[in-house]
Amino acid sequence: MNEKQRKRIIDKHRDSFTRHGYHPCALYWSGKDIQDIRFQVSADIGIQDGDSILDVGCGFGDFKCWAEKKELTLDYTGIDLSPDLLAEAEKRHPDAKFLEGDLFDMTFENENFDWVILSGALNEQLNDKSAYAKRVIQRMYRLCRKGVAFNMLDGRYLQAHDLHSQNPEYMLRYCQDLQAKCELHDDYLKNDFSIYMYRA
What we know:
alpha/beta; globular; 8-stranded mixed β-sheet; Rossmann fold
């Protein structure tokens, strides 16, 4: 991701937050119900009470809020490019850790997480044939102790010039090259799929 693309994402979320305030629409979700479905799928990888989580593209830190409603207390770290979204996240979750920037800005020296999750953060169209998405997935896997759960837009049903989508089987094969124990889930929303990657 280059500086122009980073700025575009930051400016886009500043504008959406100004228009919508604290609301899923500020994150370009169609509604809280859709957001919650994706959160449930992410959690179903095996996240349990007390686990440590790195949430890539965390937005407002809403996954933490969702998990608490499910009686899951997490050691939560969120990372996002948007300073505007993170400022709101920090107000709402003073007990969590939030980092501003791209995943590749952080060294995470001597730090790993039980689970690394990502929901919606690979939907930005970068016109790079999924090269950035692949790098993010590889980096997430290196940072996890137990596994990675991420979602993407399903290119079989959704192709738009301003959104990044991909064929689920293509991404599954890529993930299997990194780690053989993977699962594809594409039965929860028509335009979305998730992949679980487990540590052996």
